[in-house]
Amino acid sequence: MIATLPLTRRFRWTYAAYVLVFFVYLAAPLLVVGVFAFNDSRFPALPWQGFTLDWFIANTPERTGLIHDRGIIRSVGVSALVAGCVTFLAVTLATLNAFLFERCQFPGKNLLFILMLLPLVIPGVILGISILIFASRIANYFDFNHDILLDMLRPGLLLVVLGQFAFLSTIATLVISARLRTFDVQLEEAARNLGASPLTAVLTVTLPFLAPAMIGAGLICFLMSFENFNTTLMLVGSDATLTITLFSRLREGATPVLNAVSLLLMLGSMLLALLAVRVQKRA
Amino acid sequence: MRSSTAPASGLRLGVFLLMLPLLLWLLLLILLPHVDMVLVSLRERIGFAEHRFSWMHYELFFTESLYWRTFLRTALISIFTTVLTLVIAFPVAWYIAKLVRGRRRTLLFLACLVPFWVSELVRTYGWMILLRESGVISGLLQWSGLAAEPVEMLYNDVAIMVGLVYASILFMLVPLVTTLDSLDDSLVEAAYDLGGNHLSVARHIVIPHAMPGIVSGSIVVFMLSVGNYLTPVLLGGKDSMWFTEQIFTQFITRFNWEQGAAFGVLLLVLSSLIVWSGLKLTRQSFAETMR
């Protein structure tokens, strides 16, 4: 069954049809979410009542478009703040990790590498509850023994940032290490021979080489943080991120505003993803 | 010339400083929290901030049929989902790896990646719009005359599986395409020349070669399904009986952290066991598979 083998026409067509059905399956849910954002009806369902932009821009007693929806706008801000912090932390740690694993020799290196990979096989919900438990223990300890209130270790944005940082660092480390592995060390040595200090050599030669991977990893982290649900759910306090807000709205009953938000979210993530691929390809 | 001029002790200190952030991250965010989760699961609350050692939360899991049934159900549906994902993805992976070339191939592969970049919440919401009673598929069925009344397709196990397969199919496709791509076409040709038919070539040539991809794909799909929360809750409705939902209930609704922690440990053990046995089965190392 490869391209060079003669196949019956019918087989070829059946096969192509199967692949087509598969791609329809992939596209269908995304398409309906997008299309129903423009339906002039109070419910995201058939029948089609005509085209409208109300769910984006309206501000009437019956319809509140997403740009006037305080709750959603606020949670977008929260998500962006969280994603920004997580991205910064994860990319910083990942860059250090890349140098550690690609450049240094030390006993126990393999073990440390495997431990670093662990978050990939821990379900998000469990990562969330374990951090919740541990943070509460520390907070309780200071509360009971020293009368110090550490409210930031109770469910809230700091814990959300830490929870996402815990697993996104691993992904960022893998991306940046892969790029550092392809770096020609002689370039750095040449810089040293020309009189650069080790630090200057790394800053002016190696880091610019790593930049595409760092940006790419950063975009991936931002995106995955923005969209994260499982870990966030267990750690979130009163400031809801966008996915948490959408989830609770969805349980109350869907309106086309959710479609409008989802459509923008989809477009945004595809743009970021495309950017991430671009940046890394060009390098 | 790969020499370092720094003295040995200075190098040691440098390595240690470089390692410090990683060690802190590992200790404070991964290792200690999980150790603490195990500790909390093994204690019984006997008063305000007073605890003693107890196996009771694990005993309760085995004696309360709702709990172990939910656990078993989660595991079984996840296994079924994994097999289903493999069966659906394999022909598509073969098509991408072997039957199309050049630009079309890149395009098809990218098209597979798109859903992955979209938030899981949005994808699940899409399935709700498609499957519910007032949804698109029900509407199409009525319009075409195949159904006389609205059909409810949400809130059952099939809906959960449709969503789970959708959520994780990419993680099956990518390793499959990669391993199938490395299979030399001439091997397949030779097998056919020697009189093999579709079935025997698949059994003796294709599947053994694709095994590493099949295993790593299956591991990831199983893990993602077992640990999924959104899909079963939104597509399965009130009776979805998913284990992560049980963990959430214990933690957030009942505020019974000890019981929730015990459930967390059990789920972690299940998913680690699957990963471990999958790797043993194919004699692959964890570090290599993940790279």
Fold-level CATH name of the domain at 70-252 in chain A: MetI-like fold
Classification by helices and strands of chain A: mainly alpha
Note the run of SSEs of chain A as H and E: HHHHHHHHHHH
- Low-pLDDT windows of residues of chain A: none
- CATH topology of chain B, which one? MetI-like fold
| Poorly predicted ranges of chain B | 1-7
Q: What's the CATH architecture name of the domain at 70-252 in chain A? A: Orthogonal Bundle
Distance between the termini of chain A: 37 Å
**Could you name the CATH class of chain B?**
Mainly Alpha
Q: CATH superfamily name of chain B?
A: MetI-like
Give me the CATH superfamily of the domain at 70-252 in chain A: MetI-like
Task: Give the oligomeric state.
Answer: heterodimer
Based on CA atoms alone, the radius of gyration of chain B comes out at: 24 Å
The total of helices of chain B stands at 13
Largest interface: A-B, 90 and 86 residues
Mind telling me the CATH class of the domain at 70-252 in chain A? Answer: Mainly Alpha
Order of helices and strands of chain B: HEEHHHHHHHHHHHH
Task: Report on the biggest sheet of chain B.
Answer: 2 strands, antiparallel
